[in-house]
Automatic annotation (TrEMBL):
This is MALR1 protein. InterPro entries: ConA-like_dom_sf (IPR013320), MAM_dom (IPR000998), MAM_domain-containing (IPR051560). PROSITE patterns: MAM_2 (PS50060). One of its GO terms (cellular component) is membrane. Residues 5-160 form the MAM domain. It comes from the Eukaryota. Pfam families: MAM.
Length: 160
């Protein structure tokens, strides 16, 4: 509903993902950018924007970090819904949880490349007794043309 914070990447402004312009591995683009698939966003729109891993990535992974969320409670779990595109087996998208008291990121969901090129949707529910950040990481084993990881329309429930 309208209470969800939505990041559709149509503008550079995204309150929950304050850093996405600064992440070297993730780029905001659309299907007409000439950078390979996806050639449209999850609604099939060629001119609408999404995030994808840059083909010029310097390292094997790129992290996209949310702002810090407050602890969840039983009435307000944090639900995050997002659309994703992962092509080919050498690509992986991981969603991790980092509690502020811990240095490590706990992986809570991941998907590796499926051979069909299409957008999928997923919702994850987070229950945390302390403040936390959520991290979307795209990983690349080998650089090949025409392969990509992309994210579109990330929405955060009011429990986040």
């Amino acid at each position: 509903g309208s209470s969800w914070n939505n990041c559709d990447f149509e503008t550079n402004l995204c309150r929950v993902l304050p850093e996405f312009n600064l992440q070297p591995g993730w780029i905001r683009r659309n299907g007409q950018s000439g950078m390979g698939p996806p050639y449209f966003d999850h609604n099939g729109n060629e001119s609408a924007y999404f995030l994808s891993l840059s083909s010029e990535m310097q390292s094997s992974s790129a992290a996209l970090r949310t702002s810090v969320f407050l602890p969840t409670d039983e009435e307000h779990l944090c639900q995050i819904r997002f659309h994703y595109w992962v092509s080919r087996m050498s690509r992986t998208l991981v969603v991790g949880l980092q509690k502020l008291s811990e240095d490590t990121v706990t992986n809570i969901w991941q998907v590796s490349g499926e051979l069909r090129n299409q957008w999928n949707v997923n919702t994850i529910t987070i229950n945390s007794t302390e403040k936390f950040e959520v991290i979307f990481s795209g990983m690349v084993e080998t650089q090949r043309q025409g392969e990509s990881v992309a994210i579109d329309d990330i929405t955060f429930s009011e429990g986040c």
